[in-house]
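Moderator note: this is an archived Q&A kept for reference. The question asked for a predicted structure of one protein chain; the sequence and the answer are reproduced below.
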Amino acid sequence: MNDQPLILQSDLTIVLETEHPRFEEMRDALLPFTELVKSPEYLHTYRITPISVWNASATGLQTDEVLGFLEKNARYGVPSNFAVELRSWFQRCGVFSLHKDEEFLRLEATDSKVFTQLLHDPELKKLLDRVDEAVGKAWLTPGRRGLVKERLVRLGYPVEDQAGYVSGAPLEISLRSSCLSGGDFSLRPYQEQALESFHKGGSDLGGSGTIVLPCGAGKTVVGIAAMAVVGAETLILTPNTVALRQWRAELLDKTELTEDQIGEYSGDCKEIRPVTLTTYQILTYRKEKGGEFVHFNLFSDGNWGLIVYDEVHLLPAPVFRATAEIQARRRLGLTATLVREDGKEDEVFCLIGPKRYDAPWKDLERRGFIAEVECTEVRVPLTEEDRVTYMASGRRQQFRMASENPLKMATLEALLQKHHGQRILIIGQYLDQLEELRQRLGVPLITGKMPNPEREVLYQAFREGKESVLLVSKVGNFAIDLPDANVAIQVSGTFGSRQEEAQRLGRILRPKSDGGKAYFYTLVSEATQDQDYAEKRQRFLAEQGYAYTILPADSLLDLEETS
């Protein structure tokens, strides 16, 4: 009997049995060129898409490698359309390229027939200044570089951008061999690989792209190392002021940069210095709805040689538009997941750059670079009365009811008892729910309304062990540096947000000083939308190799009663 692990289907999906003895090997091999679309307990379903193939191509994968792998491991053979689509998508990666041509950019096509066909697209044609169909070439002004790349991706053809970059104002950035905070400092092997995949020796083949690493694996370090090899003034975009301050601290700790070389462009101050840190919020600020983005001039006010987009999966749409106009600047995106709930992965691909490096989370865990995590989904029933109300409610109200299920409180208390003395984060979506928990548990609550200085006081108390439990709202999804946090309990989440699930797990991924494992719990109301959306949220982490143990709440409560 043929017991090969992969079942390939004509809709370009691949089914993999989780109980197959080669499951982990196949999961890791599929990761570079597919995306996980379903992850129930026994069968995982992956899909091949144009963007997944183009990102794979950017990391060096070839058509024959992918097809050879599929042919070798397919239980029932490879459907003919798999080979056709894969070859087509891989071949499209090399059809169009951009080059510098005096004051213009030159767009070249290796297939003049395809070029002629695409010129019938009015949006593409109006972006080109001069066209020579016979030789498959066109010329455009440098300011339309991003717009042409964006349009061609929408038409199904990624552009290989070899038009080069402006150098920007030079800035020597030296990495320390010892951190100011103590301890030796050097790049880990995978960080060096990520850096080289982005920089490519300083050639025009590098200089733009996205590095994907799990939280706690040192994405910021890769960004700092990229700044050092580029050696130019740098603009760093961060998701919030907490992240901004952490970048500043890391730069001072790990480089020879001085305080006066690093500027903060935020709501508090407007400094433009050789290295300038800002936030997505300040860049998208406008005085009135529909008005101008008053701080977009920051992109042009500095002579930047590099722009770093931290947590690039959060990049707001207006910043994409600004990025389309600055394609001559080197651009580095950093993220734990390229998943975007708005479906704009193609814009990250063409405007920031393709995925240059992606380290499987479980691989880094095996090598000791991130903590081992045990994931558990705890299913909590509704009371009979609440079940009746739930069934009579609309879908949005059902989700809110299930998320705020009062019976989650007893389950949470059981988990706090189980992990007594450990560093615990309780993360939730709804402020009313969190406020009720604060009053009942008597532990601090951090929300977006709390001023940053007050938040930092509580974070520091947590680091020092003065507070062992913190309640955090959605502000806890990003940029919290709490290396000793080893338990995260999610009491409610944002519908089916895969990126949120990954970020919340990421709060406890830093290796523990005692070498111990971490624990991630999700409390969901059984047989409700809460449970359905939890399965969707978990999909990205399942793709990375994390399995959720399903636990009935009663088993925790029974354990508490007998302890």
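Archived answer notes: The first strand starts at residue 6 and ends at 9.
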